[in-house]
# Entry
Amino acid sequence: MHLVLLGAPGAGKGTQAKMLENLLDIPQISTGDMLRIAMAEGTALGKEVQDCINSGNLVSDAIVLGLIKERLEKADATNGAIFDGFPRTIEQAEALGHLEGVSIDHVISIDVPQENLIMRLSGRRTCRDCGGMFHIVFKPPVTDGVCNDCGGELYQRADDNEQSIRQRLEVYSKSTEPLVRFYTERGSLREVSGIGQPNDVSNRIASILDEN
Ligand code: AMP
# Structure
């Protein structure tokens, strides 16, 4: 099964993708995570994209498509994948539609009002080791700065600052929101509310998947 999670930054795509990984036994493919790993490792790619990412802009379609193609060749993606943060432009969606061995079964748009997104992103903390996500108000860790699940260090993403958040939301409405129409026209889009506890949202998604 190939599943695309659409939604603005902070809508909860990453959280839902991680929950769905266990349910569906297919991997989360997050282009954002792959790019952050390249930055953390200081690779040539990481250096190339870092200013762009930290300021809240999109990296080029060519770079992202290269990462996706490489990732899909790994054995764990043979039976499908959960695309999180990809595609983000019409060009990427068209390219995804032409990739051999990939047919998109579901596109789920997670909808969250803009004022909630800003609150979610500005308080978000992520575990350096396991990628677990916390929030300083809505889901604080038991020990400040330490992941409840693996004990790893929690950090604030460089692009989770006010200026970059505003830019990311603007880029989302200009470049990524048109994908809602793109997939609606192809009959594959379903919308779910992203408000509530992560379990509530994942139950909404699971019931859509159960329908088919
Ligand atoms: P995310 O972790 O999905 O919020 O992505 C973080 C940042 O990585 C984005 O703001 C972009 O700069 C970059 N990025 C991630 N995925 C893509 C993509 N599919 N196309 C272009 N840029 C991306």
Observations:
- The two ends are 11 Å apart (CA to CA).
- The mean pLDDT is 95.
- Residues 27 and 81 are 5 Å apart (CA to CA).
- Residues 2-27+74-211 form a domain with the Rossmann fold fold (CATH 3.40.50.300).
